[in-house]
Amino acid sequence: MASKLLRAVVLGPPGSGKGTVCERIARSFGLQHLSSGQFLRENLGGGGETSSPVGSGCLDDAHESSLVQHRATKMLQGVEHLPAACRCGTCTGFPRTLGQAEALDRICELDLVISLNIPFETLKDRLSARWVHPGSGRVYNMDFNPPQVQGVDDLTGEPLVQREDDKPEAVAARLRKYKDAAKPVIELYKSRGILHSFSGTETNKIWPYVYTLLSSKIPPVLSDDEN
User: Fold this and answer.
1) 15 near 167, Cβ under 8 Å?
2) What's the CA gap between 164 and 36, in Å, rounded?
3) Is residue 223 part of a domain?
4) What is the pTM of this model?
5) Cα(148)–Cα(133) distance, integer angstroms
6) Structural domains in the chain (count)
7) Alpha carbons 183 and 227: distance in angstroms, whole number
8) 202 pLDDT band (50/70/90 cuts)?
9) Is 131 within 8 Å of 20 (Cβ atoms)?
10) Does residue 71 lie within any of the structural domains?
């Protein structure tokens, strides 16, 4: 009998570091990582090469839910033959609304939901300093994760851009929109007893607690020090 899949999502407002946390989870625990933002880039740009940065929320609930459902179903079917340590998955950037959460319920039953709670001022500073590589979605922060050469991607040398909704004047409205949409989603998962919330201003300080939580569910493939 195949081992039970561990299905988890990481929730958090824009700039909360959920992508970084998911990457570390995938690396430390041998998980598959599904990113709705990457799915959108591949879908709209033909394999990730798109002329403008694509963010979560650029499609309506029905279209984005359909896209994520298709990719998640393919992933779950594809891991049936893998060793037990690999038969797990995390998703970031989805769900952000109650409609998307209901769509996700039709795909699978979640075992774990991680919610990142970051102060508003920290998010505002992070987003305003964030630049991205459009083709891959790689994110840089000019304060704590700058590119090797200012204004260009480390791997391709192509120009970085700042998303319109990362500009200071747009950040406050973006965060308010997330808070309103995410509240019923968080309450839903809290009522199911699968929500685990972590608060802080630095991903590196939040990460050890996330690592400890996941270690109580599945054995890690890397120690915390190796990450």
Assistant:
1) no
2) 19
3) no
4) 0.74
5) 13
6) 1
7) 31
8) very high
9) no
10) yes
C-alpha–C-alpha distance, residues 22 and 10, integer Å = 7
Distance (Å) of CA 195 to CA 26, 98, 135, 148? 19, 15, 33, 37
> What crossing angle do the helices spanning 203-215 and 18-29 adopt, rounded to 10°?
40
Query: In whole angstroms, what is the distance from residue 107 CA to residue 54 CA?
Result: 24
Q: Is 118 inside any structural domain? A: yes
How deeply is 52 buried, as exposed, middle or buried, from its count of CB atoms within 10 A (0-12, 13-18, 19+)?
exposed
Lowest mean pLDDT among 26-30, 57-61, 142-146, 194-198: 57-61
pLDDT tens-place string over residues 127-147: 989 999 998 888 898 988 899
CA atoms within 13 A on the CB side of 158: 14
Contact 140, 27 (CB under 8 A): no
109 domain-assigned:
yes
16: domain range? 8-38+57-216
State whether residue 103 is helix, strand or coil: helix
